[in-house]
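Newbie here. two chains, one complex. Structure please?
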Amino acid sequence: EADIYQTPRYLVIGTGKKITLECSQTMGHDKMYWYQQDPGMELHLIHYSYGVNSTEKGDLSSESTVSRIRTEHFPLTLESARPSHTSQYLCASSERTRPPYNEQFFGPGTRLTVL
Amino acid sequence: AQTVTQSQPEMSVQEAETVTLSCTYDTSESDYYLFWYKQPPSRQMILVIRQEAYKQQNATENRFSVNFQKAAKSFSLKISDSQLGDAAMYFCAYGLDDKIIFGKGTRLHILP
């Protein structure tokens, strides 16, 4: 079944650790996105990608980095986690070749807590 | 620049009643998409309904319908026969090119 997956769902980690949040989609979508969202609050776009080897920074400055080596995979990495990184991270994808071109499908999210 | 405004941070409705969530947006474009997304507590964000700007007919999905007023740049969501499972954050969103611009959301409470 076509879907978008995120792992881990919950992560509690100490300050200074390197972490990678995984996002994979089986829908064949070219475009993928990362959002940061404090619980019950608005979404902030932090990274997006138009396809393999394409990555762009979003509207909210973030210390995280992303890569897009495979169409289906869009991991997000924090080299040194800090308590200010505590938040929920949502991954999304969208189709590029047929309308609606910007409708996004979301993963279940990763809730990150940095102690 | 495009913006999306949801003026109601929180709303409550009695179960089985009807509620309308407001959304306005600003754009100079003529063709675009509008969306309502639902995010239940600790659950996945899902699309509720979409509207293409050049279609005058208001979109409907079961108990969910929109009132799309293009000239007024208004896109409200009506939920009929509210159910406990409708309790969630609702985000209005404007889509243009490769991105979506989200409003800040409205938290909807359903009162039993």
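Moderator note: The CA atoms of residues 19 and 79 of chain B lie 5 Å apart. The radius of gyration of chain B is 13 Å. Thread marked as resolved.
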